[in-house]
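This protein record is not my work; I was only asked to verify it. The record follows directly below this note.
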Amino acid sequence: MKRIGMKLWSGMILLVVSVLVILWLFQIVFLNQFYTSLKIAELMKEGNNIVQELTGLTDFAEASGNSGIRDKLENLAYQQQLSIEVIDRAGNTVYQVDNSNNMAGHGMMRNALGEVYQKALNGEVVKEEAEHPRFGSKYMMIGLPVMKDNVVEGAVIMNVPLAPVEDTASILKQQLLWITLLLLMISVLIAFFLSRSFTRPIIKLQQAARRFARGEFDSRVDIRSQDELGELAVSMNRMGEELAKNDQLRKDLIANVSHELRTPLSLIRGYAETLRDVTGEDPQKREKQLGVIIDETVRLSGIVEDILSLSQYQAGAIHLEMNEFLLNEMLEQVMQRYQLIDTDRIIGLEITGKKEVTVRGDRSRLEQVLYNLMNNAINHTVSGGHILLKAIENEKMVRLEVIDDGEGIEQEELPYVFERYYKGKKSERSRRNGTGLGLAIVKNILTMHCVPFGVQSSLGVGTIFWVELKKADVR
């Protein structure tokens, strides 16, 4: 299996080699072709300008005496290091200038020049490459006819040496050889360190993922770069934290559920066996033991129901049915239920504001919130205690408060009261009656409603759980 570092390193080296190959092709192999094409195009442009000047002369023989034409011919010959000859229709030289330093070679190239002269005087534009028969130097000969009223008046012949291109290519070849070696060495080093800088954090992420897979959720990735890999490391660390929390919650779930289920099951089994073996003939004892069995069965059902409800909320399997409803009506129904089922405590309802306030939400889920908060208050309030369900209306919201004068909650425990299976330092009564899931369900429901909620408490004074619901007519 190829490692990503080797792939990255190979890709960078391949990129550098490709660039060098293209550089060699264009600077060495195609240099002569490019140079010749550009040179001819430039000379053709300048030559056509001179031809237009010559076409405008009344007498073609006056070309040698025209200072403007002479200056253009001499400037072109000097700048391009070539020879230019202007001939008339009879082939006679009208004007000639040579800056190619190769006058001696003209006689040896007379045949090639003669063909160019002849074609140009026949009205053809000539571009022919020739080689010096003795020295092997290459030349480009260009012939441009001078036409006036479709009659050839003469021609402009340019002889361009191509030797400088070969000299330049030879120099570039030596230079590129050193450049290639240097670039290859530098690119190998840069590719090595660059691939290493990329792969090192990836390897760390891979190792962290393997540790997470083994259940080592306290492992963290130490990558501090401010790029995508750094962001991925932060996400991995956060995932590790969440996995650690979920693992702890899983352990707490197993411990708490096994503890919570073991107690009622043991009681049910014990009383059932006693009922069967001992007190089956005693109606009074049988009735008392059957009552215990029924109570514990109800409690066991409540634990299972809370576990299933919380699991559904956290899995996103429950969707809210948002509707508008009368809040006062729901509060009165909740209050009547608790006043009937619990006669050991003084339970009251106080509504400040309109008699009919309409709010928007899932009524059945919000009722569940109030039931859980009321149950929580009952579990923390002794017989004869006071519990108040209070509604306070303002312009935009209705604040609901469940107030009890029970044992209260210590300040350091307040941030954790809505966590599942968290019971803290509650009384023995609450440990026995509560499942540790009611407030967690409240949190999930209110979070789905996107409404503010919280808790206030003083130890030995009491507790206030509150939630604010938005009015239906407020947008």
